[in-house]
Amino acid sequence: MSAGWSWYVIVLIALNIVGCAWLLWWTSRRRPGDPRPEDTSHVWDGNLTEYNKPLPKWWINLFYLTILFGIGYLLWYPGLGNFAGLGKWTSQKEQARDAALANAQLEKTFAPYKGQPIDVLARDPQALKLGKSIFGNNCATCHGSAGKGAVGYPNLTDAIWHWGGSPEQILETILHGREAVMPAWGSVLQGMAGPDAVDYVIAYVRQLGDPQGGNPSDYAAARGKALYDGLCVACHGPAGKGNPAIGAPDLTDSYWLYGDSREALRETIGNGRHGVMPAWGPVLGDTRSRLVAAYVWSLSHPAATDASNKGTP
Protein backbone atom coordinates (compact mmCIF):
# COMPACT_ATOMS: atom_id res chain seq x y z
CA MET A 1 0.00 0.00 0.00
CA SER A 2 1.38 3.42 -0.94
CA ALA A 3 1.92 6.12 1.71
CA GLY A 4 -0.94 8.16 0.27
CA TRP A 5 -3.45 5.33 0.53
CA SER A 6 -2.15 4.46 3.99
CA TRP A 7 -2.82 7.98 5.27
CA TYR A 8 -6.20 7.98 3.56
CA VAL A 9 -7.19 4.85 5.50
CA ILE A 10 -5.84 6.24 8.80
CA VAL A 11 -7.68 9.56 8.42
CA LEU A 12 -10.89 7.81 7.39
CA ILE A 13 -10.77 5.52 10.44
CA ALA A 14 -9.96 8.43 12.78
CA LEU A 15 -12.88 10.49 11.44
CA ASN A 16 -15.26 7.57 11.91
CA ILE A 17 -14.14 6.99 15.51
CA VAL A 18 -14.37 10.68 16.39
CA GLY A 19 -17.72 10.92 14.61
CA CYS A 20 -19.13 7.96 16.57
CA ALA A 21 -17.91 9.44 19.87
CA TRP A 22 -19.37 12.86 19.06
CA LEU A 23 -22.72 11.38 17.97
CA LEU A 24 -22.89 9.33 21.17
CA TRP A 25 -22.11 12.39 23.29
CA TRP A 26 -24.56 14.62 21.41
CA THR A 27 -27.50 12.26 21.79
CA SER A 28 -26.81 11.03 25.32
CA ARG A 29 -28.44 13.90 27.27
CA ARG A 30 -31.37 16.24 27.23
CA ARG A 31 -30.57 19.78 26.32
CA PRO A 32 -32.18 23.04 27.45
CA GLY A 33 -35.14 23.85 25.27
CA ASP A 34 -36.18 20.28 24.58
CA PRO A 35 -40.01 20.10 24.74
CA ARG A 36 -41.78 18.22 27.48
CA PRO A 37 -43.86 15.18 26.43
CA GLU A 38 -47.13 17.09 26.75
CA ASP A 39 -45.76 19.93 24.60
CA THR A 40 -45.05 17.87 21.49
CA SER A 41 -48.73 17.23 20.66
CA HIS A 42 -47.64 13.83 19.28
CA VAL A 43 -49.66 11.24 21.17
CA TRP A 44 -50.56 7.70 19.99
CA ASP A 45 -52.88 5.12 21.47
CA GLY A 46 -53.79 7.45 24.28
CA ASN A 47 -50.54 7.35 26.24
CA LEU A 48 -47.57 7.04 23.82
CA THR A 49 -45.90 10.44 23.49
CA GLU A 50 -42.92 11.74 21.54
CA TYR A 51 -40.09 12.59 23.91
CA ASN A 52 -36.27 12.75 23.80
CA LYS A 53 -35.21 10.50 26.66
CA PRO A 54 -31.50 9.52 26.63
CA LEU A 55 -30.33 5.95 27.19
CA PRO A 56 -29.28 4.93 30.71
CA LYS A 57 -25.76 5.94 31.73
CA TRP A 58 -24.54 2.36 32.00
CA TRP A 59 -25.64 1.72 28.43
CA ILE A 60 -23.94 4.89 27.17
CA ASN A 61 -20.76 3.91 28.99
CA LEU A 62 -20.78 0.51 27.27
CA PHE A 63 -20.77 2.32 23.93
CA TYR A 64 -17.78 4.40 25.05
CA LEU A 65 -15.97 1.22 26.14
CA THR A 66 -16.65 -0.26 22.70
CA ILE A 67 -14.96 2.76 21.09
CA LEU A 68 -11.97 2.43 23.43
CA PHE A 69 -11.73 -1.27 22.63
CA GLY A 70 -11.73 -0.47 18.91
CA ILE A 71 -8.90 2.04 19.35
CA GLY A 72 -6.87 -0.48 21.35
CA TYR A 73 -7.52 -3.16 18.76
CA LEU A 74 -6.30 -0.93 15.93
CA LEU A 75 -3.16 -0.07 17.90
CA TRP A 76 -2.32 -3.72 18.71
CA TYR A 77 -3.26 -5.32 15.38
CA PRO A 78 -2.53 -4.02 11.87
CA GLY A 79 -5.47 -1.98 10.68
CA LEU A 80 -4.27 1.61 10.36
CA GLY A 81 -2.87 1.66 6.85
CA ASN A 82 0.74 0.51 6.79
CA PHE A 83 1.05 0.56 10.58
CA ALA A 84 2.05 -3.00 11.56
CA GLY A 85 0.53 -2.81 15.05
CA LEU A 86 2.27 -2.89 18.42
CA GLY A 87 1.71 -6.65 18.69
CA LYS A 88 3.44 -7.32 15.33
CA TRP A 89 0.72 -9.85 14.53
CA THR A 90 0.46 -11.24 10.98
CA SER A 91 -1.80 -13.87 9.47
CA GLN A 92 1.32 -15.54 8.05
CA LYS A 93 2.80 -16.04 11.53
CA GLU A 94 -0.50 -17.39 12.85
CA GLN A 95 -0.85 -19.76 9.91
CA ALA A 96 2.72 -21.01 10.40
CA ARG A 97 2.10 -21.59 14.10
CA ASP A 98 -1.15 -23.45 13.48
CA ALA A 99 0.48 -25.49 10.72
CA ALA A 100 3.35 -26.44 13.04
CA LEU A 101 0.90 -27.62 15.69
CA ALA A 102 -1.12 -29.58 13.15
CA ASN A 103 2.01 -31.15 11.65
CA ALA A 104 3.21 -32.17 15.10
CA GLN A 105 -0.09 -33.94 15.70
CA LEU A 106 0.09 -35.58 12.28
CA GLU A 107 3.61 -36.81 12.96
CA LYS A 108 2.29 -38.72 15.95
CA THR A 109 -0.36 -40.31 13.76
CA PHE A 110 2.07 -41.24 11.00
CA ALA A 111 5.02 -42.24 13.21
CA PRO A 112 4.21 -46.01 13.19
CA TYR A 113 4.53 -46.05 9.37
CA LYS A 114 7.81 -44.18 9.06
CA GLY A 115 10.26 -45.80 6.64
CA GLN A 116 8.15 -48.91 6.04
CA PRO A 117 8.23 -50.56 2.57
CA ILE A 118 5.33 -49.76 0.28
CA ASP A 119 4.16 -53.35 -0.16
CA VAL A 120 4.17 -53.83 3.63
CA LEU A 121 2.06 -50.71 4.14
CA ALA A 122 -0.33 -51.90 1.42
CA ARG A 123 -1.17 -54.92 3.60
CA ASP A 124 -2.06 -52.73 6.60
CA PRO A 125 -5.75 -51.68 6.52
CA GLN A 126 -5.16 -48.60 8.69
CA ALA A 127 -2.24 -47.48 6.52
CA LEU A 128 -4.39 -47.87 3.41
CA LYS A 129 -7.16 -45.85 5.05
CA LEU A 130 -4.71 -43.02 5.79
CA GLY A 131 -3.24 -43.25 2.30
CA LYS A 132 -6.68 -43.05 0.73
CA SER A 133 -7.46 -39.94 2.78
CA ILE A 134 -4.21 -38.25 1.73
CA PHE A 135 -4.87 -39.26 -1.89
CA GLY A 136 -8.35 -37.73 -1.76
CA ASN A 137 -7.00 -34.45 -0.40
CA ASN A 138 -4.10 -34.07 -2.82
CA CYS A 139 -4.19 -36.43 -5.82
CA ALA A 140 -7.88 -36.83 -6.64
CA THR A 141 -8.01 -33.44 -8.36
CA CYS A 142 -6.11 -34.89 -11.34
CA HIS A 143 -6.50 -38.65 -11.03
CA GLY A 144 -10.09 -38.71 -9.77
CA SER A 145 -11.43 -39.94 -6.44
CA ALA A 146 -11.26 -43.55 -7.65
CA GLY A 147 -7.84 -43.14 -9.33
CA LYS A 148 -9.28 -43.76 -12.80
CA GLY A 149 -7.59 -40.69 -14.26
CA ALA A 150 -8.77 -38.67 -17.26
CA VAL A 151 -7.43 -37.46 -20.60
CA GLY A 152 -3.85 -36.46 -19.87
CA TYR A 153 -3.92 -37.92 -16.35
CA PRO A 154 -2.95 -41.60 -15.93
CA ASN A 155 -5.31 -44.30 -14.72
CA LEU A 156 -3.78 -45.66 -11.51
CA THR A 157 -5.95 -48.76 -11.26
CA ASP A 158 -4.58 -50.73 -14.23
CA ALA A 159 -1.23 -52.44 -14.83
CA ILE A 160 0.11 -49.80 -17.23
CA TRP A 161 2.82 -47.55 -15.77
CA HIS A 162 4.78 -45.21 -18.03
CA TRP A 163 7.45 -44.66 -15.37
CA GLY A 164 7.35 -48.15 -13.89
CA GLY A 165 4.87 -49.66 -11.45
CA SER A 166 7.07 -51.21 -8.79
CA PRO A 167 6.53 -49.91 -5.23
CA GLU A 168 9.88 -48.08 -5.32
CA GLN A 169 9.15 -46.48 -8.71
CA ILE A 170 5.73 -45.30 -7.58
CA LEU A 171 7.26 -43.76 -4.46
CA GLU A 172 9.94 -42.08 -6.60
CA THR A 173 7.22 -40.59 -8.81
CA ILE A 174 5.31 -39.20 -5.84
CA LEU A 175 8.33 -37.86 -3.99
CA HIS A 176 10.17 -36.21 -6.88
CA GLY A 177 7.55 -35.87 -9.61
CA ARG A 178 7.91 -36.63 -13.31
CA GLU A 179 8.18 -34.54 -16.45
CA ALA A 180 7.40 -36.23 -19.74
CA VAL A 181 8.01 -34.45 -23.04
CA MET A 182 6.84 -35.72 -26.40
CA PRO A 183 8.54 -33.55 -29.05
CA ALA A 184 6.51 -31.93 -31.81
CA TRP A 185 7.42 -33.98 -34.87
CA GLY A 186 4.92 -32.53 -37.33
CA SER A 187 7.19 -30.22 -39.30
CA VAL A 188 10.09 -32.71 -39.23
CA LEU A 189 7.94 -35.54 -40.55
CA GLN A 190 6.39 -33.38 -43.24
CA GLY A 191 9.85 -32.37 -44.37
CA MET A 192 10.76 -36.04 -44.67
CA ALA A 193 7.64 -37.46 -46.32
CA GLY A 194 5.22 -34.69 -47.21
CA PRO A 195 1.94 -33.45 -45.70
CA ASP A 196 0.62 -36.96 -44.97
CA ALA A 197 3.67 -38.03 -42.96
CA VAL A 198 1.93 -37.82 -39.58
CA ASP A 199 -0.89 -40.03 -40.87
CA TYR A 200 1.69 -42.54 -42.07
CA VAL A 201 3.15 -42.79 -38.57
CA ILE A 202 -0.34 -43.12 -37.07
CA ALA A 203 -1.08 -46.01 -39.44
CA TYR A 204 2.09 -47.82 -38.38
CA VAL A 205 1.58 -47.13 -34.66
CA ARG A 206 -1.93 -48.58 -34.89
CA GLN A 207 -0.45 -51.75 -36.38
CA LEU A 208 1.93 -52.06 -33.43
CA GLY A 209 -1.05 -52.65 -31.18
CA ASP A 210 -2.80 -55.04 -33.55
CA PRO A 211 -2.51 -58.60 -32.20
CA GLN A 212 -2.84 -59.87 -35.79
CA GLY A 213 0.18 -57.87 -36.88
CA GLY A 214 -1.76 -55.47 -39.07
CA ASN A 215 -1.96 -55.47 -42.84
CA PRO A 216 1.47 -56.08 -44.40
CA SER A 217 0.33 -54.48 -47.66
CA ASP A 218 -0.80 -51.26 -46.02
CA TYR A 219 1.09 -48.57 -47.93
CA ALA A 220 0.62 -45.87 -45.27
CA ALA A 221 1.83 -48.18 -42.48
CA ALA A 222 4.86 -49.17 -44.54
CA ARG A 223 5.78 -45.53 -45.05
CA GLY A 224 5.10 -44.90 -41.38
CA LYS A 225 7.47 -47.67 -40.29
CA ALA A 226 10.36 -46.03 -42.11
CA LEU A 227 9.57 -42.71 -40.42
CA TYR A 228 9.12 -44.41 -37.04
CA ASP A 229 12.47 -46.17 -37.35
CA GLY A 230 14.12 -42.87 -38.14
CA LEU A 231 12.65 -40.79 -35.29
CA CYS A 232 10.47 -42.60 -32.77
CA VAL A 233 12.52 -45.70 -32.16
CA ALA A 234 14.98 -43.82 -29.92
CA CYS A 235 12.37 -43.46 -27.18
CA HIS A 236 9.70 -46.06 -27.87
CA GLY A 237 12.02 -48.84 -28.99
CA PRO A 238 12.08 -50.94 -32.21
CA ALA A 239 8.98 -52.88 -31.17
CA GLY A 240 7.18 -49.87 -29.66
CA LYS A 241 7.37 -51.25 -26.12
CA GLY A 242 8.41 -47.91 -24.67
CA ASN A 243 11.00 -47.07 -22.04
CA PRO A 244 9.94 -46.54 -18.39
CA ALA A 245 13.30 -44.93 -17.62
CA ILE A 246 12.27 -41.83 -19.60
CA GLY A 247 8.49 -42.22 -19.39
CA ALA A 248 8.09 -43.25 -23.04
CA PRO A 249 4.79 -45.19 -23.21
CA ASP A 250 4.30 -48.65 -24.64
CA LEU A 251 2.59 -48.24 -28.04
CA THR A 252 1.52 -51.86 -28.30
CA ASP A 253 -1.10 -51.87 -25.54
CA SER A 254 -4.59 -50.43 -25.70
CA TYR A 255 -3.97 -47.48 -23.38
CA TRP A 256 -3.57 -43.96 -24.79
CA LEU A 257 -3.08 -41.22 -22.24
CA TYR A 258 -4.35 -38.45 -24.52
CA GLY A 259 -6.83 -40.53 -26.54
CA ASP A 260 -6.52 -42.85 -29.53
CA SER A 261 -8.66 -40.99 -32.04
CA ARG A 262 -6.95 -39.85 -35.22
CA GLU A 263 -7.32 -36.22 -34.13
CA ALA A 264 -5.74 -36.93 -30.73
CA LEU A 265 -2.83 -38.86 -32.29
CA ARG A 266 -2.26 -36.10 -34.84
CA GLU A 267 -2.06 -33.60 -32.00
CA THR A 268 0.31 -35.80 -30.03
CA ILE A 269 2.69 -36.54 -32.92
CA GLY A 270 2.39 -33.24 -34.73
CA ASN A 271 2.43 -30.76 -31.86
CA GLY A 272 3.85 -32.85 -29.01
CA ARG A 273 2.80 -33.21 -25.40
CA HIS A 274 4.23 -31.97 -22.12
CA GLY A 275 3.01 -33.81 -19.04
CA VAL A 276 4.08 -32.85 -15.53
CA MET A 277 3.55 -34.77 -12.32
CA PRO A 278 4.35 -32.41 -9.41
CA ALA A 279 6.86 -33.42 -6.75
CA TRP A 280 4.82 -34.08 -3.61
CA GLY A 281 7.77 -34.86 -1.35
CA PRO A 282 8.21 -31.24 -0.14
CA VAL A 283 4.46 -31.02 0.55
CA LEU A 284 3.70 -34.41 2.09
CA GLY A 285 7.05 -35.53 3.45
CA ASP A 286 8.42 -39.06 3.26
CA THR A 287 5.95 -40.92 5.49
CA ARG A 288 2.79 -39.49 3.98
CA SER A 289 4.20 -40.04 0.50
CA ARG A 290 4.78 -43.68 1.42
CA LEU A 291 1.19 -44.03 2.60
CA VAL A 292 -0.09 -42.57 -0.67
CA ALA A 293 2.24 -44.81 -2.66
CA ALA A 294 0.94 -47.85 -0.76
CA TYR A 295 -2.65 -46.88 -1.53
CA VAL A 296 -1.87 -46.22 -5.20
CA TRP A 297 0.00 -49.52 -5.49
CA SER A 298 -2.93 -51.34 -3.89
CA LEU A 299 -5.29 -49.98 -6.58
CA SER A 300 -3.50 -52.01 -9.24
CA HIS A 301 -2.69 -54.97 -6.96
CA PRO A 302 -6.02 -55.76 -5.28
CA ALA A 303 -5.18 -59.46 -4.87
CA ALA A 304 -2.12 -58.68 -2.74
CA THR A 305 -4.11 -56.48 -0.38
CA ASP A 306 -7.37 -58.44 -0.35
CA ALA A 307 -5.62 -61.57 0.87
CA SER A 308 -4.01 -59.80 3.81
CA ASN A 309 -7.15 -57.82 4.69
CA LYS A 310 -9.52 -60.78 4.56
CA GLY A 311 -11.72 -60.72 7.59
CA THR A 312 -10.93 -57.11 8.43
CA PRO A 313 -14.12 -55.14 9.16
Automatic annotation (TrEMBL):
Family: Belongs to the CcoP / FixP family.
Binding, heme c 1: 139, 142-143, 277
Binding-site residues, heme c 2: 182, 232, 235-236
Transmembrane portions of the chain: 6-26, 58-76
Cofactor binding description: Binds 2 heme C groups per subunit.
Subunit comment: Component of the cbb3-type cytochrome c oxidase.
Name under which the protein is recorded: Cbb3-type cytochrome c oxidase subunit
Cofactor requirements of the protein: heme c
UniProt keyword terms in alphabetical order: Cell inner membrane, Cell membrane, Electron transport, Heme, Hydrogen ion transport, Ion transport, Iron, Membrane, Metal-binding, Oxidoreductase, Repeat, Respiratory chain, Transmembrane, Transmembrane helix, Transport
Gene Ontology biological process terms from the UniProt entry: oxidative phosphorylation; proton transmembrane transport
The Cytochrome c domain, residue ranges: 126-209, 219-300
Annotated GO CC locations: plasma membrane
Pathway field: Energy metabolism; oxidative phosphorylation
Lineage: Bacteria, Pseudomonadati, Pseudomonadota, Gammaproteobacteria, Lysobacterales
PROSITE patterns named among the record's database cross-references: CYTC
A Pfam family assignment: Cytochrome_CBB3
UniProt GO MF annotations: electron transfer activity; heme binding; iron ion binding; oxidoreductase activity
Native species: Thermomonas haemolytica
Task of the protein: C-type cytochrome. Part of the cbb3-type cytochrome c oxidase complex.
Keyword presence, Iron: yes
Localization per Swiss-Prot or TrEMBL: Cell inner membrane
Keyword Cell inner membrane: yes
